[in-house]
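Standup notes, structure subgroup. Blocker cleared on the NDP input:
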Amino acid sequence: MARVAIVTGGTRGIGAAISKELKAAGFEVAANYAGNDEAAAKFSEETGIKTYKWSVADYDACVNGIKLVEDDLGPVDVLVNNAGITRDAMFHRMRPDQWNDVINTNLNGMFNMTHPVYPGMRERKWGRIINISSVNGQKGQAGQTNYSASKAGDIGFTRALAQECARVGVTVNAICPGYIATEMVRAIDEKVLNERIIPQIPVGRLGEPEEVARCVLFLASEDAGFITGATISANGGQFFS
Ligand code: NDP
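Run returned:
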């Protein structure tokens, strides 16, 4: 029987590429999103992948959303915690709502999604939890104390949970993408992108969402059973950790 995967933020950007890659490899995929109904409808129409709307920042909404997915597709075998946002500001100008929104989505969202699916994975003695962190969680980035803190937290979560569940057949890994060509990055001023960001990337270009998706597919596979607590960098050589 096909394994079931939930991809949070799975209708746009990196998440959409992950959803498609998993579906092409034979997984039953549920793509979650937060509010952009138009993008989700277009994605579903183009891919045939079912979409589910709830915010990963809301624990009860995650519990209910996961139940809906399990009623439709069966127990969740693979969870890809990909949903993420930025609310950039230099720290002296950062408002509490900018801090809280990012922590609630990027870090608390990981707890809110993993906590309800984890007992089933433990019981069935098989699971894959794949967390999309960021190069800026590894190295820190000016203007992103909130985002860098949330993404560094994702790595700590990954390493701790990996130790707890190694013996029950559940692996937990993180992927740290560098700058990937999605709307999140395209929103950066083009001059800043071309003159300040791309020159920092030794391969000389932005990454493609599919390049992250292929890492996810590998970590979701049987072949990756001995890899847990790892952080895989996909950043074009921008940073070595
Ligand atoms: P996009 O902005 O292109 O897409 C974000 C997706 O997340 C959308 O589907 C969005 O839903 C969803 N989302 C946002 N907030 C929530 C929420 N509260 N609940 C559920 N879904 C939510 O992002 P990217 O594809 O660029 O980024 C994906 C992940 O990769 C993020 O975690 C990001 O931090 C990380 N990353 C990205 C990099 C990049 O260069 N792009 C670099 C390093 C890490 P909706 O469509 O409804 O808004």
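Discussed briefly. The first strand starts at residue 4 and ends at 7.
Next: hand off to the docking folks.
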